[in-house]
Amino acid sequence: MNLNITLLPGDGIGPEVLAQAVKCLQAVEETFGHNFTYTEASIGAVAMDQTGNPLPEETLEICKNSDAILFGTIGTLKYDDNPDAKVRPEQGLLQLRMDLNLFSSIRPVKIFPTLLEKSPLKKEIILGTDFVIYRELTGGIYFGEKKLSADGTVASDLCQYSEREISRIAHLAFKAAKNRKQKLTVVDKANVLETSRLWRKIVSKIGESYPEVTLEYLLADNAAMQIMLNPKQFDVILTDNLFGDILSDQGSAICGSKGLLPSASIGNDYAMFEPFHGSYTQVQGQNIANPIASILSAAMLLNHFGLNEEAQAIIVAVDKALRKNISTKDINPASTYGTSQVGDFISQNI
Amino acid sequence: MNLNITLLPGDGIGPEVLAQAVKCLQAVEETFGHNFTYTEASIGAVAMDQTGNPLPEETLEICKNSDAILFGTIGTLKYDDNPDAKVRPEQGLLQLRMDLNLFSSIRPVKIFPTLLEKSPLKKEIILGTDFVIYRELTGGIYFGEKKLSADGTVASDLCQYSEREISRIAHLAFKAAKNRKQKLTVVDKANVLETSRLWRKIVSKIGESYPEVTLEYLLADNAAMQIMLNPKQFDVILTDNLFGDILSDQGSAICGSKGLLPSASIGNDYAMFEPFHGSYTQVQGQNIANPIASILSAAMLLNHFGLNEEAQAIIVAVDKALRKNISTKDINPASTYGTSQVGDFISQNI
Ligand SMILES: CC(C)[C@H](C(=O)O)[C@@H](O)C(=O)O
Ligand SMILES: CC(C)[C@H](C(=O)O)[C@@H](O)C(=O)O
């Protein structure tokens, strides 16, 4: 297969981890006889420093002309600590999600049996956890109108959802549940928010077309408890942009390292693949960041194009690395393997 | 001391657990020679069934004429499952918070040494955890304008904060941190939300008046991870209404049972005390709900009026019950002690 892949390394540890994912894709090309071409483009703080714009027009064009996008990470402390910054690196990512209409973020939370010990949760609680979060990605409070009064004393963010925005991701989530353990949990705050009540109304109607799927609702505060107390109860979680952001990071923590989980951001026309984790600028360039989340993002990319055997080859190689303790310090504090050594081992085992 | 206390049992397990808290207050009266009077009033689904209003005018008047309020729990499944309900029990609580201007919810998260084993988190992670969440309680997305389009296809909730709303709770949180471990962590989503950036700006300015307090910022998604990975790092967490709702429930889960933690809702003129946990209607009337959160709310009430020795007597009695395994089934599945037996034991040991 021929695939045109855009690489967006971004900020912080993005470039280092993405480079390992590319090594793995190249190994897949060789082993399975595919032909992928890679085009790199800039986004985030790096792009701001070069062009003043966190999502340069050229980057957007390159993305639109490719089959899929592999994304690194975004954000730097420099802008985080400055509440007055008018433009921020994250806007590049948010704008890209919007411009490519990537309305659905798919975030699988699955325990690596080799890493059971790394979880902060007790073994009996975590063992067998396997769920996936469908997070709405282009609506809600992330994209509603933002205001700051002229005298700078009152600020607001609008959370808005339409039937169309809710139903398109709800269908994806129901379909996923149908092919998994047939359970869909909608997380919201329906006892307080009007938008949550609209979610419930629309999702319950759509549910009638998926009679094999058991539908339940969970308030967001309770969900944050349940993910810790009994994560095994979940199959597919469907939620809005903000709750999805918080719960998916919480989900990644139960796996023991933030450096392990990949995600897919899907729309009708485009697809982007990226780690759960952030830009972790503090360790940038030190060759100690865990590349596995980024490598597994490449596997999700392959799955997206039906290259399931190829994706499986990556997953098996990752598993081998973990079993052999060939991992970065976040997993194995005594490790002497760096980001690129872990990437080498995994790609050589594909 | 003479105290005029309003009792608001509310829905679900509220009445049962509140009754145990009252037993303990009565024991305190006797042992320490105080004189408390109790006036009961209705709120929530119970009040709706009686008057159509989840916060009857009479209830509000009684609250305003008392020194403090002891609250049970609110909400029933009947309304949760009906997205079309125009009035909901929770509005009674939200309206009460607003009308009494209870702008600050104080939620301590502390591990009971006797219950270490009950936490879903590993012992070494949880041991020594002791932080308190200052959650803004009368602003943000909870109280901003809510809209539903005439055709029912678009809904919105406005999240709004003013300098005044932020600074009054920030001062309380800084003062608390000053008297504790001198660290304040502000949780927000400043890389996305305008309101979060206003929080940062105002809090960092106020911080200049508290030079002994170390101020740090944490994004809400990261906070949800950190509470699981390393809860010991926190001293005082300051956050908005919605993030505070989610994170405090997550905080209660790390303690092993939702039935243990109390909270205080404080304004300039009134104070209300209530459990973290919800109305848990499923077990209502079965005498199996854990009364400890409600009993410890009564202790927080006593602390509020400087009756620290009295509060301590309650805490010691709770501890004794836990050490002697006199607890409800959520803590000790083989237990034969019900809600009222636990309440009896604790009140008799004051
Ligand atoms: C970087 C940030 C804007 C982003 C988000 O909040 O969506 C990230 O946390 C994520 O989860 O993808
Ligand atoms: C009952 C509900 C409205 C309330 C809230 O969301 O504030 C509760 O969850 C709480 O945390 O006090």
UniProtKB/TrEMBL annotation, chains A, B:
Q: What is its EC number?
A: 1.1.1.85
- GO molecular function of the protein, one example? 3-isopropylmalate dehydrogenase activity
Ligase: present as a keyword of the record? no
| EC class name | oxidoreductase
Alphabetic keyword roster = Amino-acid biosynthesis, Branched-chain amino acid biosynthesis, Leucine biosynthesis, Magnesium, Metal-binding, NAD, Oxidoreductase
- InterPro entries this protein is in? IsoPropMal-DH-like_dom (IPR024084), Isopropylmalate_DH (IPR004429)
Task: Enumerate the PANTHER family for this protein.
Answer: 3-ISOPROPYLMALATE DEHYDROGENASE
The Swiss-Prot or TrEMBL record describes its family as follows:
Belongs to the isocitrate and isopropylmalate dehydrogenases family.
> What's this protein's name?
3-isopropylmalate dehydrogenase
Quote the gene name from the UniProt entry. leuB
